[in-house]
Amino acid sequence: xxxLTVKFVDFWPAFNIYDNKFIDALKSKFRVTSLSADDQTKPxxxxxxxxxxxxxxxxxxxxxxxxxxxxxxxNFNECDYAISFHDIDxxxxxxxxxxxxxxxxxxxxxxxxxxxxxxxxxCSLVMSHSAECDPRRIQIIDAVDSYRPLAYGGKFRNxxxxxxxxKHQFLSRYKFNLALENSYLDGYVTEKIADAFxxxxxxxYWGGKAALSDFNPASFIxxxxxxxxxxxxxxxxxxxSDRALYLSYLNAPSRLADxxxxxxxxxxxxxxxxxxxxxxxxxxxxxMGNFYNLYSILHPLSRRRSFVKLSKLIGxxxxxxxxxxx
Length: 326
What we know:
The chain has 326 residues and is an alpha/beta fold. The protein has eleven helices and eleven strands.
């Protein structure tokens, strides 16, 4: 079995560089060593994400694999391969592998076995920020809240005495959970709906169409099935008041474990293929090189709060003049 070194940079602080599904995927064919952050050895494969100040720019002579858990598209001027939410081919250089697959084990099932789940309180929402989300998300929240008040367990509109420490335990106390993405994009399905399934509550889901193939449509309420917010609220009210109908959603298999298993198999095939025949697609020459040099300067700046505040201020100053000239 061949040896392989990997390194992880620009991931979120809680990410475990020694124990994760990327390493697990490679272990079937390689003896994998994960290099520490301060190890200056060039890795065979460099994994990087969207956090941090751009440490991946220090590595130009190894295969670079970008991972995103957000709705941004991979920048193939910077990476050789990407693992993202998007179902785009790019000559085999991208794999759709959602964040919920990275964070969910195949053996995980619902954590709650309630005696009378239909008697629980109405509906939960755990949300931190609203500033950058699609306005339709807030409209859905307001519409459902107007039918029956929601329990807000996150920073957004918190009304349960503070942000909840255990999300799954909190969600399990309610019949429904508002599992709303921050934007609507094909392929973009996050941990929100998976967390609801793992908490044995019925998701009220708004997001990418891929959820219909990732999971069993009979196991969640799909906001996109309703033409208006009024019809959505009427549909929720009908399910909420009909015990048998509610339990049909709750007891329908979500297919979460099977979906995660399939994604893990795809990840193993994708990464072992890269490691077996590694190829660097980037070049430091021509326009691609110009892009790379520009990003390597701007990205570290864009992660600094002072730069972001200055950029927003300039935008507010220039925006009226721009629209006046149109």
